[in-house]
């Protein structure tokens, strides 16, 4: 692990390390004393990010619910393990964390990759999940590409996932934070949100031992057909109330995909966040927190039915 502690870690509760399958996993929690009967919230970050992405959300939402957040294996301050990465691995990590520390139905809150892990977890372990709050949902390659193009795209992705290409790229990115800054400014609608704290959130974990190897493993894993399940196959299996928040200006996963998904689940409610891109929790945290808090009140009263 890198020796420096990021400044945003002080904003997200009591951080702890947990040994999972012999690997170190970082998590945090804030216990709420306001309403002990309310279900806990478990936050799952997006691809390339970490639990620090929730720095504007955890404390406000902990006023009514105990909150947990974790770094998925390979990301953030969790170990950069030589594992076979994929949604199934992270889903098992989430389930084992819940079984170890919580053991009561939770509401999973996930962004992008974290949203996909949350959906897969809810489908596989319905006894664990009482509801879902998802901020953008990625599609698998099979869902966005015509069948005849999938072998070609898979071959190209496998070629570009070669460590001979990826390791020099990784070194270039980690040595030049300006590259990350430029990418983030394309993802965020408001470039002023891209400050030193946000850049550090993405540039600190790659300094950890084993990070280059994880970068190569993840890049290779994303070319596999079994890296992620099809969202449209999973959604009909989920009967839990589901809130989806989506930035209207999302360039990474356009909101048109989110609108399609509403046709696959009567339990899903889509709320569009104006003037927001791929990370609405960061660009408009007050609006996102308000929407979540309002939904949680309806959830607690049994009014979360969208059929």
UniProtKB/TrEMBL annotation:
Database matches in Pfam families: Abhydrolase_6
Please list the coiled coil stretches: none
Identify the keywords attached in UniProt to this record, alphabetized. Answer: Hydrolase
Q: Does the keyword Nuclease apply?
A: no
Give the AB hydrolase-1 domain ranges.
Answer: 41-290
Q: Which GO terms describe its molecular function?
A: hydrolase activity
Quote the SUPFAM superfamilies the UniProt record gives. alpha/beta-Hydrolases (SSF53474)
Q: Which InterPro entries match?
A: AB_hydrolase_1, AB_hydrolase_fold, Epox_hydrolase-like
Q: What is this protein called?
A: Alpha/beta fold hydrolase
Which species is the source of this protein? Answer: Geitlerinema calcuttense NRMC-F 0142
């Amino acid at each position: 692990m890198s020796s420096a502690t990021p400044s945003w870690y002080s904003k997200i509760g009591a951080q702890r390390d947990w040994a999972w399958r012999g690997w170190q996993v970082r998590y945090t929690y804030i216990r709420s004393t306001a309403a002990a009967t309310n279900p806990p919230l478990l936050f799952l970050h997006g691809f390339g990010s970490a639990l620090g992405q929730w720095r504007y959300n955890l404390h406000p939402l902990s006023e009514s619910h105990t909150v947990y957040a974790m770094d998925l294996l390979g990301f953030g301050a969790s170990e950069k393990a030589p594992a076979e990465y994929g949604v199934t691995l992270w889903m098992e990590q989430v389930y084992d964390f819940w079984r170890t520390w919580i053991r009561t139905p939770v509401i999973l809150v996930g962004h992008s990759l974290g949203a996909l892990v949350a959906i897969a977890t809810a489908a596989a372990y319905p006894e664990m999940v009482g509801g879902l709050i998802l901020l953008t949902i990625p599609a698998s390659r099979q869902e966005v590409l015509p069948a005849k193009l999938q072998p070609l795209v898979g071959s190209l992705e496998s070629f570009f996932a070669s460590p001979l290409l990826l390791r020099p790229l990784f070194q270039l990115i980690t040595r030049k934070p300006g590259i990350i800054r430029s990418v983030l400014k394309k993802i965020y609608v408001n470039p002023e949100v891209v400050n030193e704290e946000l850049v550090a959130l993405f540039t600190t974990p790659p300094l950890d031992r084993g990070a280059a190897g994880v970068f190569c493993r993840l890049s290779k894993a994303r070319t596999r057909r079994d890296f992620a399940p099809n969202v449209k196959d999973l959604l009909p299996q989920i009967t839990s109330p589901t809130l989806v928040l989506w930035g209207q200006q999302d360039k990474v996963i356009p909101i048109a995909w989110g609108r399609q998904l509403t046709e696959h689940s009567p339990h899903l409610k889509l709320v569009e966040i104006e003037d927001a891109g791929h990370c609405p929790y960061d660009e408009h945290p007050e609006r996102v927190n308000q929407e979540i808090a309002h939904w949680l009140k309806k959830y607690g009263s049994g009014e979360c039915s969208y059929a």
